[in-house]
Amino acid sequence: MASRLSDGVYVRDSVQIAVKLLVVGPFGVGKTTLIGAVSEIEPLRTEQLLTRAGEIVDDLRGLPGKNTTTVALDFGRITLGEDIVLYLFGTPGQPRFIQIWRDVARGAYGALVLVDTRSLDTSFEALGLVETLGLPYVVAVNAFPDTPGYSAAELREALDLAAATPLITCRAQDRESAKNALIELVRHLHDAYREHQ
Amino acid sequence: MTPHRREDLVRPFVLTGGRARSAPGAPVLDVAAMVTAVPGVPAPPVQPESLALLEQCAGRYLSVVELAAAIGQPLGIARVLIGDLLASGHLKAATPDNGADRIAILERMLHGLQAL
Predict the structure, then answer these.
(1) Closest-CA residue in chain B for A90?
(2) Cβ(B57)–Cβ(B71) under 8 Å?
(3) Most Cβ neighbours (<10 Å): which of A114, A119, B53, B81?
């Protein structure tokens, strides 16, 4: 991890630790908005090829184009200190994209699950996904102007959250609010990993 | 977000000769793996997309996923091209910090986020 000058002095070899966090939630819940609010780069988009059956394309030979789709993967980046670069990935929370999530989630530290209380049912899939992936997570209600005012207890019950799972509110488009949501997530991950040590 | 048909689907894989892996059994590069161009390596690639990859990470480290976005290719395609350039020595990957202590990293992340 240390910079080896003999390898060439042209680049500072300092940013070495890349950490991945996922931002999961239904379409339109504000994943890319939240990523954009805190990212030091404009959120970028790349695509992943999938077969219609939801498998990541492994070999295109003999695979006619009509059997594949692409799924967008939005991401942002935050450099923290000298040598940690944090990548935030947002992709749709539907179960049929599980292969993409498995790929992106490999080695990820945890997830922020964004919830829209105007349509709680759409959030179950995202919660199911992070649990399938085995990632520790924090649930953040993205507060839209017409968000119904449920109590935390009502939301916890509706989402069937474990007592240890933090439930917070954020405004995805607000940098401070989005940043605080990430801070809550990192705090929770810290506690979660320490418990499992 | 919405999956859509790609009419130009065939073209990206022409770049890799139909390969989904850089070499048979080659490990899949992590989306956040950081790579940088190694200057002065002879026989630079002729493919424009591969040259673009080298230009993008000349003098700095960039992640695989950022490179894919930068050259406008699907992640799978970019991974194969990057894998080829790693094999030919035109790119080198940052040493992954496998031994890093997650708790210590999370503490540093927390301080970093609070300082933003």
Answers:
(1) B1
(2) no
(3) B53
CB A130 within 8 A of CB A22: yes
This complex has an ipTM of: 0.82
Q: Does the distance separating the beta carbons of B9 and A65 come in below 8 Å?
A: yes
* Whole-number average pLDDT of chain A: 82
Q: Rounded to the nearest 10 degrees, what angle do helices A31-38 and A175-195 cross at?
A: 100
The confidence score (pLDDT) of residue A54 equals 57
Judge whether A59 is closer than 8 Å to chain B, CB to CB.
Answer: yes
Any idea what the CATH number is for the domain that residue B56 is in? 1.10.10
Check CB contact under 8 Å for A106 and B61: no
Cα distance from B46 to chain A (closest Cα, Å)?
23
- Of B70, B90, B69, B72, the C-alpha closest to B22 is B90
CATH number at residue A176: 3.40.50.300
Starting at the earlier edge strand, list the strands of the sheet with A110-115.
Answer: A44-51, A68-80, A84-92, A17-25, A110-115, A137-142, A167-170
Its domain, for residue B106, covers: 10-114
Q: With beta carbons under 8 A apart, name residues in chain A contacting B71.
A: none
How many Cβ contacts (< 8 angstroms) between chains A and B?
156
User: Average pLDDT of A165-178?
Assistant: 96
Please name the member of B65, B95, B105 whose beta carbon is closest to the beta carbon of A46: B65
Q: Span B16-40, mean pLDDT?
A: 80
Q: Which residue has the higher pLDDT, B36 or A147?
A: B36
- Tally of domains in chain A: 1
Q: In the predicted model, what is the mean pLDDT of residues B32-39?
A: 92
Substitution target in B21, B38, B54, B75 with the highest count of A β-carbons within 10 Å is B75
What is the pLDDT at residue A119?
A: 83
Number of Cβ within a 10 Å radius of residue A14: 17
How far is A176 from A158, CA to CA, in rounded Å?
Answer: 28
